[in-house]
Design a protein that fits this description.
Elements (H helix, E strand, L loop, with lengths): L22 H38 L11 E4 L4 E4 L2
Antiparallel strand pairs: 1-2
Pfam families: SEC-C
Protein name: Preprotein translocase subunit SecA
Keywords: Membrane, Transmembrane, Transmembrane helix
Amino acid sequence: MGQIGRNDPCPCGSGKKYKNCHQQLEEKKGTATSSKIIMGLVIVGIVLIFIVSFMNIQTTENQAPGEAPPGKVWSPEHGHWHDAP
C-alpha cells in the first residue's frame, strides 16, 4: 500500500479527508517518539557526567595525605607509603 495523501479519504472509514482525521494523530506519534529519544539522551548525558565526576574524585583521593615521612614515598596505586628505594 502506498503513502496516503493529505486529501485522500482516511483509511479508518470515517469518510473524512486524511488531513482532517488521522494525519494529526500520526504526526503527534512521531513527535512523542522524538521527545522520548531526546529525554533518553539527556538522562544518559547526566549519568555520564556523574560517572566522570566520580572517577575524578577517585583519582584525587590517591594523592599523598601530606609530607612524606623520612625514607618513604607515596604509592598512589596502593594508597599508602612505601620505603624509598
